Amino acid sequence: MEANVQAEKGQLSIHTDNIFPIIKKFLYSDHEIFLRELVSNAVDATQKIKKLADFGEFNGELGELKVSIKLDEEAKTITISDRGIGMTAEEIKKYINQIAFSGAAEFVEKYKEKEDTRGNIIGNFGLGFYSAFMVAKEVEIITKSFKDGSEGARWICDGSTEFSIEPAEKTDRGTDIILHIAEDSEEFLSKYRLTEILEKYGKFLPIEIEFDEKIINNPTPIWVKAPSELKDEDYLAFYKELHPMGEDPLFWIHLNVDYPFNLTGVLYFPKLKNDFSARKEKIQLYSRQVFITDEVKDVVPDFLTLLHGVIDSPDIPLNVSRSYLQADGNVKKISGYITRKVADKLAEIFRNDREGFEKKFDDIGLFVKYGIISDEKFGEKAKEFCLVKNTQGKHFTFEEYTAQVKENQTDKNDTVVWLYASDLQKQDAYIQSATKRGYDVLVFDSVIDPHFINGIEYKIEKTNIKRVDADTLDKLIEKEIKLESVLSKDDEEKAKNLFEQTLGGAPKLTISVEPMPTDELPVVITIPEFIRRMNDMAATSGQKSMFGDMPQMLNVAINANHPVTQKILNADENEQKQLVRHAYNLALLSQGMLTGSELTAFVQQAVSRL
């Protein structure tokens, strides 16, 4: 039988004159977490009584088990109550008075320079209860142990190192924590503010949480259930719970592992299309159903932050700071496991439903491509199911596509050339020219593609990837046999000089005369591939091109075999200049390079020549 509670006064067993200013100073930026900590403690106490009942160590009536939060705006108090195991007076002395903290001076010295210390003191130093003093000028504990013969006890502390314990009238087991809110924390004397915090941190706590006469949480979210218990409607309903305004996801992965670490969760694949903006703060990290953070980039690789959903692991410290996560071995294992599970899921869908996977790929291609270029382990697996699509809308794996074009698009150096377009409308003339030669053209038009092309080119053996308008086709895919020019060397030089003289005021041009089929344009304008890639990658990264504001470099290839070239050579001087400008503008038009006024002038010229 528990001895009667003896009234007494004493001092908290800590190694500093006053720990509370330290707590306030270092935790102030996260002061709302006091409610998370106290409610979590109440939930723990409640779960313990359930376990003791399961073990046969508590034979009384469990009754209704929930945690209640009460706000008294007039008295300026917040009370957190549970019907858990409670405490005896001796346990108060053990767990409350002897703060799980030593070497306060060393602690302050060690952490005073670290900004994110504020976010990880409590969990690391056993100070969860003492977070109450971030917002309270005085804290009361009224508690009664579940043990037979126990009587109630009240503990009071005003934020100094002094406390008092005295007997208390309490009929039921459990604990009430009463916070007398300080003047500088009266923002928490608001139903709206408390509801906001409870819904943020306690939305899925495993014990019912009651506030303002309402249960504010779902104690059994789908990630704590076995996948065999769940239907598609359950996963979709939970997604709507997380993202009420979101479009339905494409599919999902249910994570469930208990070795070598504990991890549960559900990750959803949203429809990404061509949008990176959807990626932020869409995976929530929990520990034992307590919300920790939605900044998970240290828990999962960056490309996985494009997914939505929930990850729950007790092996991640309750108070997560980025620097701690980077050094934690469990976090690295968890990251690797999630990456592997995501890759395996995609490979499974690809193998079992190729047609369905192809239909989804426009929506998930951004994710897969980002993963390939940013995570080597994912990239190795993803080569099996990452798809490329040609201008006819047909999909291929890397291996399939190389086999498809190898015969016709292998150059004289035995390198397979993948041709691609980034804008089907602007590059249509070039696509048509390639198609006439029997060449196939891929579509790479997403925001990630400039980086993706660079990332995969060196990974695919003996393959070059070139934009279809980056050069003339004979230079894009150089063959042993070349077309012959119908012009003499003198006429080629004459044509080149005419263009250089006539276009002298144009941007920086490199002019050449090349033999091409007669059904090609009389002039073909291209931008060197390396410059185009640098510009494209700079644009997708929101940065300036390394070439700054320099005039655009253009390659101008005159088609030696086109009738217009012969016509230019045979015309008088004035008409030569007009024909040169006309042919040059036609080439610019095919590249989508004519501005509004230039386009209008070109059309007027063309009409006048009809």
Automatic annotation (TrEMBL):
Histidine kinase/HSP90-like ATPase domain location:
30-171
Q: Name one GO molecular function term.
A: unfolded protein binding
Protein's UniProt name: Chaperone protein HtpG
Q: What is stated as this protein's family in its record? A: Belongs to the heat shock protein 90 family.
Q: Which InterPro entries match?
A: HATPase_C_sf, HATPase_dom, Heat_shock_protein_90_CS, HSP90_C, Hsp90_fam, Hsp90_N, Ribosomal_Su5_D2-typ_SF
What Gene3D superfamilies does the entry give?
3.30.230.80, 3.40.50.11260, Heat shock protein 90, C-terminal domain (1.20.120.790), Histidine kinase-like ATPase, C-terminal domain (3.30.565.10)
Keywords for this protein: ATP-binding, Chaperone, Cytoplasm, Nucleotide-binding, Stress response
- Binding-site residues, ATP: E37, N41, D82, M87, S102, G103, T175, R322
